[in-house]
Each structure stands twice: as structure tokens, then as C-alpha cells.
Amino acid sequence: MLRGLRRLNRYEKRILDIVKIGGKLVRLQQFGFSRKTEEGFRFPIHALEIGTEKAIQKKPVGIVAGVHGLETVGIRILLDFLEYILHKKSDGYMTELEKGKVGLVVIPIVNPGGVAKKTRSNPAGVDLMRNSGVEAESAPLLFGGQKWTSKLPYYRGNSLEPESRALYRFVHHYFYPNENAIMPVLDLHSGFGTIDHVWWPYAGTKSPCQDTPVYEKISEFLKVIKRHSRFKFGPQSETYTTHGDLWDRFYDHYVEKVNDGKKNARFLPLTLEVGTWSDIKDNPSKIFRKRGIFNPAKENKFETIVTYRDFLRDFVLLGQSNLKDWK
Ligand SMILES: [Zn+2]
Asked: What is the pLDDT of residues 254-273, one digit of tens each?
């Protein structure tokens, strides 16, 4: 049953409105379709190019959301951010996009079938963030990804799902070809707990990735200079390890096959896991309300969502930098 169809339609409408608001600065693209639902629906997976064509090509930064169909906070944070930076009358209007200093490419909903079905997984029951085929060194028994059955959560599937392939095509198209660019890509998720984590690779091993020094410098910059001190930065495996992380696969593919190390370009995937209880810090009385615990601060969702605008703006502006800035 498609209990989330109205919700999905609402988001799609906002995406079309964003295309309208952005005028010449925004172009709608499609990178594929979701898995078919039992009812026979296949949903298109849309991407938006925001900025001049040259900046999209030479200075692209990425943001994606909705890999897990239940984590709609990430989708709403992203749509709010786009409205905020594209409205000409908004305080947040980003002139850097218009001037071609940086380009932004987004997939607001990677897993539209999961949103429509109100499931974490895609319509085939596959958890896309366990789907890459990468084997972790060790991972928690169920949560780390399992190959037994799609009837249990965290199912890894047998091969790349259509949504995973769409995300790969997106990454390959916009980020792999550049010779000279810093290309951070942020994947928005939400998790249990109060802390906002920003993770870099790897999810599958505690060994540091090749770009750890660059990630550390960027984190320090965002934390100290840009004052985003509430975010906790680090490799994902510091929090937990999982099998099948898509970013592990794309990152390794880039490092091993695309960039021989001679290019002054870096593809830098990051995951923001929004602590869904993070607004409780501001209003501790919520925790004592019955609804507050299971449905954190529904009345305060809007305020929670807008608190990510500054962080996302500073994240996008990283695309203006060069590799030598982080050495
Ligand atoms: Zn997630």
C-alpha cells in the first residue's frame, strides 16, 4: 500500500516550484527510475542542476537526500535550503551561484518508492545504504546489513538496485571527470539520538581513507572558523561499521580508477546524520511530553529544519576552494 504517496507528491510539487523560482539558474534532470512497487508504480529519480552550466561542470558540489524512505527530515531540510538560497528576496539568496563561482547538483529524493511506501528500504525491500556489495571488516549482526531476507530490515540485496545505480550515474556524470576541483557531496540522513554527525569514509573499515587529512582540515574549518561547533565530524566507522555503504564503493572507485593522484581534484563524499532529537536540547520540557519522545517535537519541525541552512550554505561554498587550500 502506498501510504506515503501524498507526501511524495507534496515533495515533488516543491521540487517543481524550486525549478520555477530558480528560472534560468535551475535545470531539472532525470537519472532513472525507482524499483517498481507491488502496485506497479515506478517513480522517476530527479536531479536539479543549480548554477551556470560552466560552474556545474567545473566546480560542482552535491547534496542528496531520501536514500532511506522514512528519513524525510533530510528531504525537507534540503528543499527548505533550496528555497532559501533561490528566492530572490530571501536573506539567503546565494549570489555565488549566479556568478558562476560554484555549482550545486542535488537529488532531493533518491528513494521515492520508499517515501511512497513509508519504508526505509526501496520497493524491493533493499536497504540502499547496505546495497553496494562492499564487505565490511566486521559489522553488527543485523544493523550492519544482512543477506538472509528482504523481510527483515537492513537487507543488502544481491546486486545494485536501480536507485543505487541512479546515484552512481549522478556521481559519475558530475564529479568524476574534473581535473581541478574540490567536490564535496553531502548525503542527508536522520538517526536516533541527539547529535548531528558528519561522517567521511569509511563505513566498512576502521582504516583511514586516503583523503583523511583533507577531511580533517575541512572539518576544522567548518567547526572552528565557520562556528558549526554542534556537528561531530569523523570517519563513519568511528560511530559504527556497516556492509554495503554506497559511498565507500563510489569513493574507492574514484580513488582507484578515476583519479590517479595526479589530478588536483578530490571527490569527497560526506554523510550528515541529523540527530532527530536534536531540538530537545533547546526545549528539554519536550522529553516529558508523551508525544515528544516518539514523535520528536512535531510542532517544532520547521524551526529544526531551518537551523541547517547556514551549515549547508558553508558546505556548498567549499566548492570554491582548491586542493592547495587544504594542504
Ligand atoms: Zn539513513
From this structure: 999 999 888 999 999 999 99
Q: How many H helices and E strands in the chain?
A: 11, 8
Give pLDDT, residue 262.
87
Domain count, the chain: 1
CATH label of the domain that carries residue 125:
3.40.630.10
How far is residue 53 CA from its own chain's centroid? 22
- DSSP three-state, residue 268: strand
Question: What's the CA-to-centroid distance between 100 and ligand 1, angstroms?
Answer: 32
State the Cα–Cα distance between residues 201 and 218, nearest whole angstrom: 14
Q: C-alpha grid cell for residue 82? A: 533550496
Which grid coordinates are listed for 145? 546489513
For the chain, what's the residue count?
327
Measured in Å, residue 247 CA sits from the centre of ligand 1 at 13
The whole-angstrom separation of Cα 161 and Cα 122 is 9
Distance 126 CA to ligand 1 centre (A): 13
Distance 189 CA to ligand 1 centre (A): 4
